[in-house]
Amino acid sequence: MKLSTKGRYGLRAIVDLAVNQQQGPVSISSIAARQSLSENYLEQLMSRLKKAELVRSVRGAQGGYVLQRDPEKISVGDVLRALEGDITPVACIGIDGMEGGCSSAHTCVTKYVWQRINESVNDTVNHIFLDTLIHESREKQSEKIECPI
Amino acid sequence: MKLSTKGRYGLRAIVDLAVNQQQGPVSISSIAARQSLSENYLEQLMSRLKKAELVRSVRGAQGGYVLQRDPEKISVGDVLRALEGDITPVACIGIDGMEGGCSSAHTCVTKYVWQRINESVNDTVNHIFLDTLIHESREKQSEKIECPI
DNA sequence: AATAATTCCAAGCGGATCAGTAGGATTTAT
DNA sequence: ATAAATCCTACTGATCCGCTTGGAATTATT
Fold first, then answer.
1. How many angstroms separate the CA of residue B56 from the nearest CA in chain A?
2. Domain that holds residue B129
3. Of A12, A149, B18, B111, which is the most exposed, with the fewest CB atoms less than 10 Å away?
4. C-beta separation of B35 from B12 below 8 A
């Protein structure tokens, strides 16, 4: 029931990107440095975010990535689904139609449970947007700077 | 973000157990047969449920397992935690105190997200109890029997 | 035009975890 | 005494995770 590093690192990365994109495209190397992530691995995560049309890339020197939508229009759910592929708790909920090859889908008692879990997770991640995380990030950053020690 | 087969099979198993315990202890072999599970594997799952004091075992011939509490007092959360060990979405939420060894816990922006996901999953699984699933199972069973074909 | 900075792409790889097997020891109803 | 059951531990094959490697393509800067 754990989120993989794709989701964990990737969300941190896109928040970092959102916070730092004022001065133009944000490079993988700068995100990796600030967030202590492997550049090569992060590259693969950005590729997923791009494929999901959450970010846009600028190639060549001084290139990098920019958000493709306003932060208030990108939900954590969008980001996690782009990174993890499918965040349903069991396979039979995720795939439409074939129900994950489960032969007893219509008599399956526990399916009710998995659906409820799935709904509650979706409700949560679909209603947290990047702008909220950005604001929180800015506050924490200033806390850091104002630290008396 | 997937539940392992421990949680999936185990919940099915304990519901099966609850439905069939009227005539005395329910054996692993009978659960395995009804639910199409490996006996040896199921044995390991029952061992976890026993360690968590959700079921009680009766050894020897005609032995098996019985629920240790009333079905309305066993939540799906109890069962899943017994089987999966820890159903928090990321490690830093689960372990008290040390926060999973994360050095930047107090400045971590995404932690807010993981906490919200964790709360919503817990809210869901802690409020579904076995008696609900038992009733549903009985209904589906009778549907099956009444099937015209 | 050359260089350096960058994204893009595909393949490989060690380690961990999962799902299940195997084999036997112990308990107990019949 | 036997058979039916739980109990316990160790092993194993497969899969996935997290990450690395190596290079090709693009483009701003000099």
1. 22
2. 5-146
3. A149
4. yes
